[in-house]
């Protein structure tokens, strides 16, 4: 077994790209479990659950793996529009949150949470809204192609 300095030296000799790939290999299985659990929970309630692991990884990176509301320690995915209000489990509706903000927000609409500052809300919207829009566009493209697919059968 190589000594610790040898392991460190071998890691340092890797290129940034290789180090990122290694980090991804260890991170992605955990992330995909989390994402799978979120999607299953949503579908179990008859709600949309189509979050992808790569999308959640992108969102976590965007918020620097910190709570989107207070910058605290990331604890779980938070439905920006709560599920009880029809919020979907999709990249356009999920942000990382700390335990405290997640509890505090509960089933309230983000617009009704006066403790979330307008600038924080604006930042979250700036990130989520394009994702929601691109999802709607994709859905429309899929549904507009459906009749064509059915004609071919
Ligand atoms: Zn927080």
Count the domains. Answer: 1
- CATH first level: which class? Alpha Beta
Kindly, what is the distance between the CA atoms of the first and last residues, rounded to a whole number of angstroms?
Answer: 60 Å
Question: What are the secondary-structure elements, in order, as H or E?
Answer: HHHEEHH
Q: What percent of residues adopt helix (DSSP H or I)? A: 55-70%
Cα gyration radius (Å): 19 Å
Percent of residues in β-strands: 5-15%
> Numbering strands along the chain, what is their spatial order in the largest sheet?
1-2
Question: Biggest sheet, open or closed, and with what strands and sense?
Answer: 2 strands, antiparallel
Note the total helix count.
5
Protein structure class: mainly alpha
Using DSSP, what is the number of strands? 2
CATH topology name, in short, is: Herpes Virus-1
Corresponding CATH architecture = 2-Layer Sandwich
Question: Could you list the spans in which at least 5 consecutive residues all have pLDDT below 50?
Answer: 148-153
Small-molecule components bound:
zinc ion
Shape, principal axes of CA atoms: globular
Chain-averaged pLDDT = 86
Question: What's the helix and strand layout?
Answer:
Elements (H helix, E strand, L loop, with lengths): L3 H9 L3 H29 L8 H10 L13 E4 L14 E4 L1 H7 L12 H34 L2
Helix pairs in contact: 2-3
Zinc ion (ZN) binds next to α4.
Question: Explain this structure to me?
Answer:
- The chain has 153 residues and is mainly alpha-helical.
- It has a single domain (4-137), classed as Herpes Virus-1.
- 58% of the residues lie in helices and 5% in strands.
- The chain is built from 5 helices and 2 strands, in the order αααββαα.
- The chain has helices at residues 4-12, 16-44, 53-62, 99-105, 118-151; strands at residues 76-79, 94-97.
- It has a two-stranded antiparallel ribbon with strand order 1-2.
- α2 crosses α3 (53-62).
- The longest helix has 34 residues, at 118-151.
- Residues 148-153 have low confidence and may be disordered.
- It binds zinc ion (ZN).
- The site of zinc ion has 8 residues, from α4.
